[in-house]
Structures are given as structure tokens and as C-alpha cells.
């Protein structure tokens, strides 16, 4: 049976089981510290924008957000058994660097059903400092009117040149909702994207400073 806060080909019971699994499966490998999870609305449309520095970021957030979450995931992951599983737990494939309205349309439908959509605006994993951002998250926020919630994490990426780490500390911080500029057209979309990028980048800098003193 389908649910309005998930894509139509998702299995809600499998999604919920997957979130439960993700909520604890990383604990043996990371010392996870969460901050301000209470800022996540328990219901209603939400666009979560997050920085991205390691493959584990998506699954980690999937288990930590406390409600059903539909993430954009790179198309390359949707093959074989893994691809079948991602679709059944409601995740959406997106082609990086290509114009494709299908993930935008599917994510908008989830938001209109009162769901939560997670986007990594950087488009790919890197240093996670959000030096650049794609327009998809801002487009979703402007189109749906959903709450835009920034989330940043640090500690999942192994520093360059370092060896294997034993249960590194990972911090996940939920910020205050971001207000997206209301201007129309291409200029409005660019301004909205920069608002999201700057908000995330500022949170990353603040978290880096906090981690350096603890």
C-alpha cells in the first residue's frame, strides 16, 4: 500500500524498517553526536539541504532524521539488487550534470504529500565545505513552499593521507530553517541557491571551529 509522503513505487513498511536499521547500524563505527534534532518538524513538507563529504552521509542522515526521508541518490547506485532496494525504500535517482525533470517532479509530489526530501546541493561528495551548489534544492523549495532545513555533518570523511580511524567522532547539526528569496525567474533561482549555499557553508565553518576546540 502506497503512502503520500513516499514515491508510489516505495514500500512503506520496508522504508520504515530501513530507517530503523540505519538509526543504529553506524554506531559501532562512529561516535555520533547529534545537535538540535528537535528542530526537525514532525510532519509537513520539508526540504533538508545537507553538505556531503562521504558515502555514509546519506544513510546516516536517513536513520537520524526521525521521520520518513526521501533522498536524491546518484543514478549509478540504481542497478541490481541495490537499485531495487533503493527504489523500494523510496529513494529517487538523479543524473548528475544532466537536465532531468523526473527527480524534480517526483520530489515535488512527495513534498505535496507532506513528506521530507533530502538534497545534497553540492551535487557530489567532496570536502563538504559547500563552496558551490546546484539549483535543484532551491527549485524544490520555491516550487513547493516547504520548510527548508539545513543539516551539516563533520567527521565522516577520512582526512587525506590518514590511516584507518577507530570510531571517529561525527557531529550532525540541524540548523534553523532558511528563508528562500521569493524573486522569480533565473535570477531568483540563483539568489535562492546562494542563500542555501551560504547558510550551509556558514554552519560548516561554525561546526569546524567548535570541533577544533573540543
Automatic annotation (TrEMBL):
Keywords: Acyltransferase, Transferase. Residues 46-156 form the Phospholipid/glycerol acyltransferase domain. GO terms for molecular function: acyltransferase activity. It holds the Pfam family Acyltransferase. SUPFAM superfamilies: Glycerol-3-phosphate (1)-acyltransferase. CDD domains: LPLAT_AGPAT-like. This is Lysophospholipid acyltransferase family protein. It comes from Pseudonocardia adelaidensis. The lineage of its organism: Bacteria, Bacillati, Actinomycetota, Actinomycetes, Pseudonocardiales.
Amino acid at each position: 500500500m502506497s503512502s503520500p509522503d513516499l514515491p508510489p513505487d516505495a514500500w512503506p513498511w520496508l522504508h520504515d524498517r530501513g530507517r530503523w536499521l540505519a538509526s543504529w547500524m553506524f554506531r559501532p563505527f562512529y561516535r555520533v553526536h547529534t545537535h538540535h534534532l528537535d528542530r526537525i518538524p514532525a510532519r509537513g513538507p520539508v526540504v533538508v539541504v545537507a553538505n556531503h563529504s562521504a558515502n555514509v552521509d546519506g544513510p546516516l542522515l536517513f536513520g537520524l532524521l526521525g521521520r520518513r526521508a526521501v533522498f536524491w541518490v546518484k543514478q549509478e547506485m540504481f542497478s541490481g539488487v541495490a537499485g531495487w532496494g533503493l527504489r523500494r525504500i523510496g529513494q529517487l535517482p538523479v543524473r548528475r550534470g544532466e537536465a532531468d525533470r523526473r527527480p524534480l517532479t517526483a520530489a515535488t509530489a512527495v513534498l505535496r504529500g507532506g513528506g521530507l526530501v533530502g538534497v545534497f546541493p553540492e551535487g557530489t561528495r567532496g570536502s563538504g565545505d559547500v563552496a558551490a551548489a546546484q539549483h535543484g534544492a532551491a527549485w524544490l523549495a520555491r516550487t513547493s513552499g516547504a520548510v527548508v532545513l539545513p543539516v551539516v555533518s563533520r567527521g565522516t570523511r577520512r582526512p587525506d593521507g590518514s590511516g584507518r580511524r577507530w570510531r571517529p567522532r561525527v557531529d550532525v547539526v540541524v540548523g534553523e530553517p532558511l528563508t528562500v528569496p521569493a524573486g522569480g525567474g533565473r535570477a531568483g533561482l540563483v539568489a535562492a541557491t546562494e542563500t542555501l549555499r551560504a547558510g550551509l557553508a556558514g554552519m560548516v565553518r561554525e561546526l569546524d571551529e567548535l570541533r577544533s576546540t573540543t
